[in-house]
Amino acid sequence: MTATYKFLIADDHPLVREAMARVVREAYADADVIEVENFDAALAHAQQDSDIDLILLDLNMPGMNGLTGLLQLRNEQPTIPVVIVSAEEDKQIILQAVSCGAAGFITKSLPRDQMCLAIAQVLEGNIFLPAEAMRAPDSIHKRRHQEQGFTAEQLRLLTRKQLQVLEHMTRGESNKMIAYHLNIAETTVKAHVSAILRKLGVTSRVQAVLSANDIDFSQFLNR
After folding, report:
1. What's the fold here for domain 152-222?
2. CATH class of 6-134
3. Distance between CA 203 and CA 48 in Å, rounded?
4. Among 109-118, 154-163, 167-176, where is mean pLDDT lowest?
5. Burial of 98 by CB count in 10 Å (0-12 exposed, 13-18 middle, 19+ buried)?
6. DSSP 3-state helix, strand, coil percentages of the chain (rounded to 5)?
7. Is-contact 205 198, C-beta < 8 A?
8. Percent of the chain, pLDDT > 90?
9. Is 172:101 a contact under the CB 8 Å cutoff?
């Protein structure tokens, strides 16, 4: 007996929503498909319905604020996988999305059969990355990002627990997930995150995650 899945498609362009819904129903004829046109509506549905199996989320629709929306959604509903759907094909943006908790990244230029394959792969618990985009050479943006990572002196300002929290943040974990893995209260995690941002001189969780993504945490945690 084939499982019946529930999908949430969030995109501000009606034609794109309709096209994505067709892709979903082509692969899962009995699927329950919910369509919304902005991030706030997507977040509200996710908060109210834990039975959603997969969220297909436009990167640039109203309310997203870049990857901040993805982080908020993952923090509110960490058990629902989220796939970013975007016209962007920059490898660094794709990696940033995954580092912030996305279960995959579907470029809007991807052929329909590959979109179906991507959705199936994520539903099976895997991460999907578009092969063509990932084979592309690194962008100037990535080279600049690598030059702008945190210094050892900055990282030494963090306590051992704050370093552990930051390490889990780079894995795309929500505050709830970090609290579970470190066996501390979620409010304590929030306090650590605030302290991390202040000590490292960044203004957002996304900025902290991106700048810390290449850190070898073992050399700081074993000090």
Report:
1. Arc Repressor Mutant, subunit A (1.10.10)
2. alpha beta
3. 30
4. 167-176
5. middle
6. 50, 10, 35
7. no
8. 52
9. yes
